[in-house]
Amino acid sequence: MSVIYLAEIKQLIELQKVDDERFATRQILENAPEEIAQLRKKYESVERRRDHILDKITHLNEQSKRLSSELSDDSAKIKKSKTKLMQAENTREYQAMVREVDNMEKSSSTREEEKTALEDELKNQNVLLTEIDKEYTALKSELEVKEGGLAEKIEKTEALLTTLDARRAESSKSISTPVFQRYEFIRKRLDHPVIVAIKDGVCTGCHIAVPPQVFIELQRGQQIMSCPNCQRLIFWDKHFEEEDTPVAAPENAEEQTETTENTVDKAEKNDSTKRRVKKARTEDEKGQDAETDAADTNASEEAAGADSEEA
Fold first, then answer.
1. CATH number (domain holding residue 59)
2. Which residues does 228 contact at the CB level (< 8 Å), separation at least 6?
3. Average pLDDT of 297-305?
4. What digits encode the pLDDT tens for the residues 233-274?
5. In the chain, how many domains are there?
6. Those residues with Cβ within 8 angstroms of residue 240's Cβ, 6 or more apart along the chain or in another chain
7. Is there a domain that residue 12 lies in?
8. Which residues contact 133 (CB under 8 A, 6 or more apart)?
9. What is the pLDDT of residue 153?
10. 3-class state of residue 248 by DSSP
């Protein structure tokens, strides 16, 4: 494996790490105003629903007042008609007054039912208003806080981006011009990231297996290569395991824990294997010693027998 090749890959990986941070920072700059826009849209939607409920409550209150006034007038009219009923001078006049009182009572009863239904609806709308007021107040407060802190957040993020741009410029100095130009060419035309590892013959950028010949050439580590499928720069992950090169950190604590546990398990398995091999070697050595002792004993006995026969 070429030392120059390995050094260039390491430099590109470091540059990619800086670009990763720049990518995340730019996402913050792009998403912050969009997040507030979405929040404002939600707030305005709730505000419209709240205004609609308030308008409905106002209309219902007006209707309630009108019905109360009409019922009061009906009551006065009915009372007056009943007084006239007692003063009727003949049967015909009496029957006419009875029909008039009856009609007024029916009309008043209809208004009473209408007012009862209206009051029930008014109670329902007030309950809805109480519920939506909570959401409206919370959204309004959240929107005010985020809009107030947006300028500061953008300012800090832009300052961080400036720092990262300076780090990127410094990192790119150690990369040869042709390689850096190739990196930039890919970065401007493909989605993030630019350089990815090949693990078990599969590109971690497009998740498609590379041709066997490409994989064999990549393992030799003689030149910087590209994935035939996604055109990203690629390297074999095993090269960096051997060189103890730092790799990207896991995305979350669970992955970090899992990685640590796997490492411990692997170490324990290796220790167990070593103990088994050592034990087997010891047993073999004991067996060999026993066989040697037995052979020596047999030889001594045979020599003694021979001496006895000669005597």
1. 1.10.287.1490
2. 210, 211, 214
3. 47
4. 999 988 876 444 333 333 443 443 343 334 334 444 444 444
5. 3
6. 9, 197, 247
7. no
8. 50
9. 81
10. coil
